[in-house]
Design a protein that fits this description.
- The protein is α+β, with helices and mostly antiparallel strands and 171 residues long.
- 37% of the residues lie in helices and 28% in strands.
- It has helices spanning 2-28, 32-50, 99-107, 138-146, and strands spanning 62-67, 74-79, 81-83, 87-91, 109-114, 117-128, 151-160.
- The chain has a 7-stranded antiparallel β-sheet, covered by helices on one side.
- A hairpin with a 6-residue loop joins strand 1 (62-67) and strand 2 (74-79).
- It is elongated, with a radius of gyration of 19 Å.
Length: 171
C-alpha cells in the first residue's frame, strides 16, 4: 500500500515538473496559445487580486489607467513600472498583444499610479529589453531574463495627475 502511494506521489511530481518545464519553455518561446491562456487567467484571477494594493506605497504593482480604443471605456490594469529619470519602463512579458498596451499606444497617453502618486504619461514607445535593463533593479533582472522578456514600454512622465475616481474594470 505504501509502495503504491509513493509511486503515485512520484508520478504526480513528475507530471507537475513536466508542466512547469512546458510552461517555462512556452513563455520563453512566446507560444501564442500559452500567452493567451496566461493573459486570460491573469485577467480573471490575478489582476483582481493585484488591484487590491496596486499603485499604493510599497505595493509590488503599479496601475496604468487607460481608455479602451474601441469601447471608449476607462480601465485600470496592474503593471510593473520601473521609475526612470524621464518616466517609466514597463516590462512586456506577453509581447505587444495585451489590450492595455494597444490602448496606451493608440491614445498616446495614460496615467500611471506608482507608490501612491498618479502621473500623467505620454510618448509610449516599445523598446528592446536591453535598452531598459539599466533601469531594472538587479533583483528583477533575473525574472526578465528567465521569462525572456524581449521588450519594454517606455513612457515619459509629464506631470502629476489629479486623483480621480478609479474605474472598476480591469483589461
Amino acid at each position: 500500500m505504501i509502495k503504491g502511494t509513493a509511486k503515485g506521489i512520484g508520478a504526480l511530481l513528475l507530471i507537475l515538473a513536466a508542466i512547469g518545464v512546458a510552461f517555462m519553455v512556452g513563455m520563453r518561446m512566446k507560444y501564442p496559445p500559452l500567452l493567451t491562456a496566461v493573459r486570460k487567467m491573469n485577467r480573471a484571477v490575478m489582476n483582481p487580486q493585484a488591484m487590491k494594493t496596486a499603485g499604493q506605497p510599497g505595493a509590488y504593482a503599479g496601475v496604468v489607467r487607460h481608455v479602451g480604443r474601441k469601447s471608449g471605456r476607462p480601465y485600470e490594469t496592474p503593471i510593473g513600472p520601473f521609475p526612470t529619470d524621464y518616466g517609466f519602463d514597463i516590462a512586456l512579458p506577453y509581447g505587444s498583444s495585451p489590450d492595455w498596451l494597444k490602448n496606451v499606444v493608440a491614445a498616446g497617453s495614460a496615467v500611471i499610479v506608482h507608490e501612491g502618486v498618479a502621473y500623467s504619461i505620454d510618448q509610449p514607445e516599445v523598446i528592446a529589453a536591453a535598452d531598459a535593463m539599466d533601469n531594472v533593479p538587479p533583483s528583477e533582472q533575473r525574472n526578465i531574463r528567465v521569462f525572456a522578456v524581449d521588450n519594454f514600454l517606455r513612457v515619459r512622465r509629464v506631470g502629476l495627475h489629479e486623483p480621480a475616481e478609479s474605474p472598476t474594470d480591469s483589461e
